Each structure stands twice: as structure tokens, then as C-alpha cells.
What we know:
The complex is a heterodimer of chains A (about 290) and B (about 350). By secondary structure, chain A is mainly alpha-helical. Chain A has 13 helices and two strands; from the N terminus they run αααααααααααββαα. In chain A, strands 1-2 form a two-stranded antiparallel ribbon. In chain B, helix 2 (about 90-100) packs across helix 3 and helix 2 (about 90-100) runs parallel beside helix 4 (about 135-150). Chain B has a six-stranded mixed β-sheet, with helices on both faces. Chain B has a five-stranded antiparallel β-sheet with strand order 13-12-11-14-20. Chain B has helices at about 40-50, 90-100, 105-120, 135-150, 165-185, 195-200, 220-225, 230-235, and strands at about 5-15, 15-25, 30-35, 55-60, 65, 75-80, 155-160, 185-190, 205-210, 210-215, 240-250, 250-255, 260-265, 275-280, 285-290, 295-305, 310-315, 320-325, 340-345, 350. The mean pLDDT of chain B is about 90. In chain B, strand 7 (about 155-160), helix 5 (about 165-185) and strand 8 (about 185-190) form a beta-alpha-beta unit. Chain B has two domains: about 5-225, P-loop containing nucleotide triphosphate hydrolases (Rossmann fold, 3-Layer(aba) Sandwich); about 235-350, CATH 2.40.50.140. The interface of A and B includes residues 185 and 187 of A.
Amino acid sequence: xxxxxxxxxxxxxxxxxxxxxxxxxxxxxxxxxxxxxxxxxxxxxxxxxxxxxxxxxxxxxxxxxxxxxxxxxxxxxxxxxxxxxxxxxxxxxxxxxxxxxxxxxxxxxxxxxxxxxxxxxxxxxxxxxxxxxxxxxxxxxxxxxxxxxxxxxxxxxxxxxxxxxxxxxxxxxxxxxxxxxxxxxxxxxxxxxxxxxxxxxxxxxxxxxxxxxxxxxxxxxxxxxxxxxxxxxxxxxxxxxxxxxxxxxxxxxxxxxxxxxxxxxxxxxxxxxxxxxxxxxxxxxxxxxxxxx
Amino acid sequence: xxxxxxxxxxxxxxxxxxxxxxxxxxxxxxxxxxxxxxxxxxxxxxxxxxxxxxxxxxxxxxxxxxxxxxxxxxxxxxxxxxxxxxxxxxxxxxxxxxxxxxxxxxxxxxxxxxxxxxxxxxxxxxxxxxxxxxxxxxxxxxxxxxxxxxxxxxxxxxxxxxxxxxxxxxxxxxxxxxxxxxxxxxxxxxxxxxxxxxxxxxxxxxxxxxxxxxxxxxxxxxxxxxxxxxxxxxxxxxxxxxxxxxxxxxxxxxxxxxxxxxxxxxxxxxxxxxxxxxxxxxxxxxxxxxxxxxxxxxxxxxxxxxxxxxxxxxxxxxxxxxxxxxxxxxxxxxxxxxxxxxxxxxxxxxxxxxxxxxxxxx
Lengths: 293, 362
């Protein structure tokens, strides 16, 4: 018996909802679990059957992790000797500076590629291929160099390596936006008397600002959450948040889940705030085609 | 003041030879229109004058000075682009003001000049709007104003009206003409629209395949096309072009095609027998009801346009033979009727096998 068109449509849409719901559950449950764990008492972290909701919810993990408040520690292993606020400061300085440099220089290179063809397509592809090298490959020689030239365990050292490793992404992303700017608009500025630099800063960059913002956030996420390079080339002086996160375990206690969850939520929130502030640009930046021809 | 000389200008893009050995002088204050089908090299020529393309060889001189190595901004030119090329993130006033700002004109002066040119092209009410809020015609006026305000010696216009509808095009065409009269500057205008060329130009440069085919006033180009291509390109409806041959008989020359046979004027008496194309403009073909014309052809289609009526005749080939009659007197003619046509003999053109016009003896 043949189905009518509307029956078929109803079945398709039903299947679609089921698939998406399963996918949504898989994607969002871990996030929910982190948030809920961060509000749980020590005894509920590993409890079986699990506590799906913290009862009663507690701020102990947050107070302990972020402010070192020992009176909230209810068990013997919960006293934090770490300094997450310093890590937060380090992470902020390192991630923001390296991302800023990466987008600034990346967009300059991208402009050269887009308008002057300073890199051939093959070179551009190789540039992206550089990112395919697993970081672990370069990390050992890098730490040797860094020790030799005194950059190990410094903010500048980490900024430099983040800036260089994210540059290919910045070039690729911003180039696609610059390609969208009609050449005639630039030429109009040029014949009206603007120099090349003036044209770039007054016409091209403002036109692709949504794209720049999207690129900025994308690279900020990469540098903000980078772990491996930070682990090897920093030691005790400069700790970033992802490194801090890994320290919440001990040889006798195992993982201190509630504290880690509280820290993890704290690491994620700043990025979400940034994302919310610039969401207008993100929608336009990630959908391209924002330059009206 | 700007007299622009192009000397042996060549431009190649890889294997493509876009402009071939072009030499031509544009006099100060002249309105010159480069016209031709797409890919004929007219825009490339304009962009070389502007400085956006470097000539492969040859020289460009402005007032005697070679400008090949000058940046576009140092050539003292203004350009209006096909796409308008307004700055989307600046409002209309800021767009117009841009050129003045680049020349470090003081702010009070800028405001005053922006107002002036905005009034001149009638966009005074748009100054606070963004380009995205302007219609096509308004955008083009803004683009004009933005160029006007910098007071360039020469205006380069690259198909400025091609993105507009017919009515706006006529309106802005008149505007360009008015500006040229008022400013007495050199205008170089590129278009593929023969009607624009005819109405605007002091001189028309017809280009094809990277070469100049003919230079002349609109009337010269229209009345004395040098070849088949120019004859066919100008005029709407276009010239009737019928393939056939010249036959010499009893000391007179006749033109004979598949569908008709007509005596040629005495000026062609000495023309060599052989394959030719006869050309005559629709307005030079007289329609007579009854008998007594030069030829007789069956009507294929009647198009009453109001002021005129176009009659399309079947000349045995796909392309119809067209005649224009004034008013609607002929509008009642039915398709299939055979109608007598007479030719204004002095207006007959003949083109040889290579498409070149055969000059008749005076």
C-alpha cells in the first residue's frame, strides 16, 4: 500500500527528531554531568546509583578550587594547594595575546595572498599541512631550544609558540573573508587617493570584521584549551588552566572530580561569555558572504 | 585640463591578447565613448588609463606626461565603476567625503563640498543613509558624487549604467550629459550599449577583438560604417544586411539576392562583380501600398510601437528585413501580404567578402 505524501513527510520528520534527540543527548549529557558534578558533595561523585541532580547542591567545590577556602573541604583529600586564579591570569594573557597576534599577522598574510598572490595555492596548502604535524613531534626539540634560549617556562615562550602554530588557521580563515571583498571597492578607495595601508585599515578590515571576530574566537578556543605544548614547555612558573585542571589528582586520592568539574566550568564560562558578546558577528562570520556586493 | 594620449598600447593576459597596438588621443574636455561587444578590450583600456592594469607595452600620457609608472591616485583621475563600488560600511556622506579626507581637506570645507555635490546630483536627502538602503539609481548617483567631489581632470566611467533598468538608464544618461556640459572635463565612458554611445559621445571609438575598428562622431559612425561589424552594431533596429552578389549588365550594376534584385546607384557602376552584402537602414526603406517599389517581399510580422510601426519582411533568410514607417498607418497589414518596398539609393551600403565597405564613386 502506497503512503500518501503527508504520511511520508510525517515519518521522515519523526525519524529526524529521534536521530537528533539521540545525538543531542550524547553531545550535551557530558556537559550537563560536569556542571552537575561541580555542585555535588564529595560523597556523591562516585555514588551508585548515580545522583543525576546534586542534592543538596553545594558551592563547596567552587569555593575550595577558586578561593582555596579550606573550611569547605569535607574530606581529607580536598584541600587545594593550587592557584587557579594565577593560572586564569596566565591563560588570559597568553591566549588573548597570541590570538591577537595570530589574527593580526594572519590577516596581513591573507591579504597578500588574496591580492598579490604572494603564496601559490600549493604553498597555501602546505601551510595548512603544517598543522597536520602532531604537536608531540615538535615538542621535544622545542623544549630543548627553549631551555637553551631561556624561553622555557615563560609566558612569552608560550605566546610565541601559540602564535606560530595557529597562524596557518588565521591565514586560511581570513583569506576566505578577504576574497569576498570586491576588488572594485578597494580600487575605488585607491583612485580616490588612499594608500594601500589606508585601504586595508579603512576599507578591507572593517568590511570583514565579522570574519575577523569569528577567526579570533576560533583561535582563542584553540589556545585557551591547549594542553600538550603547555605541559612540556612550562614548568612551575607559568601554569595555564588546562594544566591546572590536570593537577587535581593525587597518588593516594585519585581524581578529585568535584573540584575538577568546578574548575572546568570556570574555564568554559569565559569563552561562553565572549561567544555571547560577539554572537551577532559569529553568525555572520561563520556563514560567510557578509559583504554585500 | 587633461589631454590623454594612448601610444601603441598593448595588453596581454597570458596567451590572451586583450588590447592590440592601440593609439588614440582624447582631447581635453571631450566626451569619448569606447564601445564594443564584451571582451573587445574596452574595459581593459580604461583600466590601463586608470592605472589598475599595467600595459604590456606602449605609453599612456596625460597632458604630455608619461604616467605608466604613476599610481592610480597620482594620476588625477576619477572613476565610476560598474558595480558602483560604494563602501558598504560608510554612510553616503562618508562615502562622498572619503576622497577629500584622503587629500587632507579640513573638516568644515569637507562638509560644505559634500553638500554641494550632493545637491548637484540630487542626493541631498540621502546623506545619512547607508549604501544598502539606496536603490540602484541612487547608488550610482552617490558613486558619481564621490568622484565629482575630488574634482578630477578626467572622469572614467566603466559601464556605469549597465546594472540599472531602462528608465533609470535614460535618466542617468541625461545626468552624465548635463555634468559633462557643466564641468567641461574630459569624460571617457565605456559601454556595450550602442544607444548610450550614440547619445553621449562627442566621438565614439568602436572596438572589437582588442583593436579599434572605427573612430568618429556618432553621425559618422551611423551613416558611414567602415565595415559590416560597425554597420550591424549601431542602430536599433539594426541595419538590414542581405547577402547576395553584384551583377554587371548593360553598363549598370545590380544587386541580386535569393529573394530580390535591385538596381544599384551609379556610384557603384564600376563595382566588381562578386559576392557582397547589401546594407540599408530600416528608416531608408520606403513602404508603398500598391505597386511600384524596387522590390516586393512578404510580411512576416508587424510591430506597432505607437510613434512608429516596424514591419518585418521575409527575405528568404532567418534574419528579417525591417522597415520603419511613421505612425500606425501600416499597423493593419497582415502577415503574409506582399508589400512593395523602395530603397533610398544614396543610403545603400555594400560590404565585400571580408566585411569591408565598398566605397562608391562620388
